[in-house]
Amino acid sequence: MLNHIPDPIELVNYIDDGEQARHFQFRLLNIQKISEKSTVKSIDKHQWHNAKPGQFFMLNVPSIGEAAFTFTEPPNEQGEFRALIRQMGKLTRTLFTLPKGEVLGARGPFGRGWPLERIAQHNIIIIAGGCGLAPLVNLINNFTATKSRNLADNQQLVLIYGAQSKAAQLLTTERMRWQKQIKIYNTLDEVEHQYTLAENESQGTPVDCIDSALASFTRPVTIALLCGPESMMQSAAKRLVKSGLASKDIFLAIERRMHCAVGLCGHCYLNQHYVCKNGPTFSWQELQ
Amino acid sequence: MEVYQLDDLTQLQQHLLVQHQLYQVIKNDDEQCAWQQQTKEANEPLIAMLPQSSAKNFFFAEHESLLIFNGDYFQETLPTPEPFVLFGVLSCDLTAISYQDKFFQDDPYYQARRKQCLLVGLDCIQPCQQGFCPTVDAGPGVRQHNADIILHPLANQQWLLITTNDKGAEAIKGLALTTSHWHLLTQRDLTLRQCEQDFPDHSYIINGIDKLNSGEIKDSFWQQLAVQCLGCSGCTTLCPTCSCYSTRSISVESEQNKVIKQERFWDSCLYESFQREASFHNPSSEAGKRVQRFWQHKFGNEFFTTFNRHGCVGCGRCEQTCPGVIGVHSVMKRITNDA
Amino acid sequence: MSASLIKTTCPFCGVGCGMYLKVNQHGQLLSVEPQQSHPISQGKLCDKGWSTAYAIDSYQRITQPLKRINKSFYPISWHEALTTIADELTAIIDESGSNTVGIISSARASNEDNYAAQKFARAVLKTNNIDHCARICHSPTVAGLKQSLGSGAMTNSAKDIFQTDLILVIGADPTENHSILGGHIMQAHAQGTELIVVDPRVTRLAKLTPMHLQLKLGSNIALINALLHVIIKEQWFDENFVKSRCQGFEQLVKHVKAITPESVESVTGVDAELIRATARAYSQAERAMIFYGMGITQYVSGTNNVISLANLALSCGHIGKAGTGVNPLRGQNNVQGACDMGCLPNVYPGYQAVAELVNQEKFSKAWGTEVAQPPGLTSLGMTKAAQSGDFRALLLFGEDPVVTDPDQNHVQSSLKNLDLLVVAELTMTETAKLADIILPAVSFAEKDGTFTNCERRVQKVNQALAPLAEAKGDWQWLQALAKQMGSQALNWQNSEEVFNEMASLTPAYQAMTYQKIADKSGLQWPCTKETPDGTAILHQQSFPIGKARFICVNQVDIDEPIDENYPLLLTTNRLHFHYGCGSMTRKSPLLERETPPGILFINPDDAKALHITHQAPVSVKSRRGYVETRAMLSDDVPIGIVAMPYHFKEAPSNQLTNTAQDPVTKMPELKACAVVVTALAKGIAPKTIQQLQEAQ
Prior knowledge:
Number of helices of chain A: 8
Oligomer: heterotrimer
Largest interface: A-B, 40 and 43 residues
Mean pLDDT of chain B: 94
Helix content of chain A: 10-25%
Order of helices and strands of chain A: EEHEEEHEHEHEHEEHEHEEEHE
Distance between the termini of chain B: 46 Å
Shape of chain B: globular
Largest sheet of chain A: 7 strands, mixed
Radius of gyration of chain B: 22 Å
Mean pLDDT of chain A: 89
Number of helices of chain B: 12
Strand content of chain B: 15-25%
Shape of chain A: globular
Number of strands of chain B: 12
Largest sheet of chain B: 8 strands, mixed
Low-confidence stretches of chain A: 37-43
Strand order of the largest sheet of chain A: 10-9-8-7-11-12-15
Helix content of chain B: 25-40%
Strand order of the largest sheet of chain B: 3-2-6-7-8-9-1-10
Low-confidence stretches of chain B: none
Radius of gyration of chain A: 19 Å
Structural class of chain A: alpha/beta
């Protein structure tokens, strides 16, 4: 049977990032409690230890409800995990007012994450817009972590990150760190006139950068990972197909309103798919 | 499968009432038909009339509590119904239950109710007003896998009783029944075949389904049709296979403590806000897209492959309740003629 | 799950659809089911109707009497509430006289409640200060049709929609406000009935017909006079009918002689040829019926607008027969009934004039007490008098004038100025927040009674649930209060007794009983000894005033045109998923989800010029007020006009609306005022009026 019941979590900490966005650190409470008392590591009815990059969880803010968010760091041994959350509606507005130590709920991980088996050994282009970078953080971190550098020899990774404005950019520290190992193109929809663009910045949308990003690869790109506003992803996917990528090698992470996350409530439909169950990651081919 | 002849229906009702709560479709003074609980004293006749509300809320409740949160942890609030029997479910509604059984296969709330239920199906031997079950393979005769017991009216107030599985056989244990002659089954087939032939010509529905799946219908057709969708939720509420829901949290204060209850309740994909996100991004902001989705979900081949049948069971309730006159008959005629 | 079904009448809008309340064995309301055999709704409901269970849910309801001390409310007993109210009322009456107290009753409450309210005012308080919200919806209908035809109600019935050849919808948005009737119109149109829509906005019905006359705000009379001009000039009028059934046609002929379609093109914005085509279609149709709404009544020319529609129908003889008539679409479930019950300052039940001595005697005798004689104040009159201290105590139930009445700031300060404000309500409303005492009211599901729908059909409301906690029905608490004040005038045992007393005094209701209403699925008034089964079509043989009157009326421009500082015209509209102040419909999580709390419809071209994007926060300012809301870009509103629904307490359109009034009925001009719209900083939620007021 499906489990609709969240595990209790503690809001451990948060750090502001960009405009009205925060990195939240949560900790699963029952995992900890169980491990103190017994040798069984966790009851883990939700398979938290299996979370994959690109999967999501349902955050329950009691008295408000539930909404879907992706992990920027999946649960570790202590049951700690992180998410980057932007203030948008009632649930996030409430979340941003909560003090550290507050007990909330979480269910997950859900959905189909990035196609890791397809990614290994391939040259990858990542195109993200706004908050759309969040589901890719974990993946990029894995590739760029100094200790366990997962990028295979000759494997290249390029990121195009678009934001509405300089102030709206997210994950600046992370991008600075990644930049040491991978090439990053930053695009800005709006640029204030006093502002001088940095070397890896340009005005426009991520789609405008695709050609030059592709040209920077020494060997052809074989996989593209896209996340951000749906219209941007669609234009990007079309451009990539034009540039010779197969539509089965372009992956999009789709966002939808969700209530159940297990393919029942119907809200996240996309053609015959439910984004929560069949996605949120789809190949461009599947969406045609 | 066992086949019996039943002389007195009340005997069966009384027998089932010993171990079950029994619900039956009752017609009131205004000719309104609805599922009502029957007691041992009540002896309402069994009628083959389509109740305005299908039986879906016996399993997928209109509102139900999913969990409560007491400040420390979340607790599941599973329903615990007594064993009950739905006595005389028509084939279209049984087909819908079987459809939802599949859809809610892993849902604990649905299944907690469903496993307590004995389904007694009732064959229709006359077409109903809006129905077109034969067109979508959902009736008029009860499909064997959709009920535990099937009742078929014979002449002289007699009934053919068919048990289709162990659950049905178990339920009638102890009831004095005569094993039937197999020829009565042949008679049933003939009666049902005759009933099928008595349905009006519904070829526009078949044509409509074909056209819907041809990919030829223009967006402008759906937009024009959707002008007439008032977003009332009547079709999705009465449709026996519609299953969309939403959730909300509400604070429940009792004398002892304050808990937060999370409940789910029926939703409708025809509401403009059904898919709208907190950012105001809305993949289905156009009414035309929502109306198209509704009909695609009922008749699209892409869903047929998952459920091995259409999402529509041919009950016609949407036609009857739609204030905008875009229920299934109207839509299929318009698709056939205008799209 | 299985539940018992209790038949009743939908509590939203004047259509009066039939529904069952599904109640489980624990006495909880689960949901509703439409009544298939209902003469109008035939198994259909709109989204409001389907959401009834949420609207009256016990969650968030007021469950006991509350007393306000400073800004907080404290629970008190009924005894304390009633003695406090009775003592204060008595003291105020003794000190300043009965004309300083009054009641605003409710078009949502039952006939029985409304009858009790006006009797309480007239027989216990001894004042004619009794009114209700019809003032701001259809008072011009009552005044206008009374003059022209002799009766101020819908002349025909809902079923006539399927018996007509042409439907003219003017200043009404039936699919949104009277969805089931709107659906009937769509159905009839699909089956071949011609449809003409006259509306400044592209309504849903307008999208279904090529005959859409998109007139400028407030140019109804110019347009109708031009239609009459064409009809007379082309000899398309019904000479026989005009001669035998009407008077004053000659003056009308003279009056419209110069009003050619070309002469009104610039005022109305409607092409002369389209006016001619409309005149031909309407006059030449075998049967044609007019439906209108607040796009006719909510103008300074409201009464005259109604009169001009009567002129149009009379000239073509489209009245007194099936499939014809002048048919106002009344807003609330029982606004017709509240008017019929005499919850108006100038008439007793059945529109019997207060000013006439014989009527005063009739009611004094029937009620066994001397009734009040001086004419009463209208609701706006009461708030105005409260401002100056000439009006001191108000009892109010089932209405939220702070949200729904024009010029919110004025209403609020007036109500604050009262010595005593008593509000009976289901849930906390903006008006209730100002009350000294709040009384817990029961919902329609917790009471017996009757509603009268817009086609004059009196229908039963049947109690399905026990009253929530300490809540009481309106006539029941009025009865208790009357007793507290020493009057036995309201001592009925049950709702049926209230109804029977009312029917005995109200000619049009005289042959009605609860049993007959139930048996006949409602009875349409007049229901008298001569017409025991009611009357589906009025004026078949003659008019109550003998011959109907043609009354010449002139175009009156809107009171507040645009200028440099206020360059856009604001009109008000309604959304199909909300009802009135939203106090009921907004409790449905589904309906509440449909829009942000407060919206402004604006044409994309206007929006572009103002750098406003879809759903972006904007401010709207008029000479009277300022609100913040979200923009909805829509081609349905023409360039130069913005439209705002009035359901949202967070962004009430009545902060902005004009208080200029129709001289006859004091109907404020809610449909047009000048505003300026400005884009606000992106990404920040619009401030609610409450936040704006606190910031001041």
